[in-house]
Write a structure and sequence with these properties.
The chain is mostly helical and about 80 residues long. The chain has one domain. Helices cover about 55% and strands about 0% of the residues. Helix 1 packs across helix 4. The relative contact order is 0.28.
Amino acid sequence: MQFTVLLAFATAASASVVGLSRRQYPDCTASCLQSVDLHGCGVSEPDCLCNNEDYVKETTECFVNACHGDEQQQALEVANAVCAA
């Protein structure tokens, strides 16, 4: 489950680039999306972000700490869709 959660949040910052609006993310993710370190990846590089362990870990931790319950599930689903795109 931990790996799935990590992978799920891998491309949160690039959501709008691959056609998913940031508005689909719950409000609890806003500060995470604005402050996460991209670790050398560009916002428009979902492959780089999905495969960057540091980015994935930091984004996941931020989402888990910022979101709870249904919002956490929504963030997971949107991020999964972004990584799968």
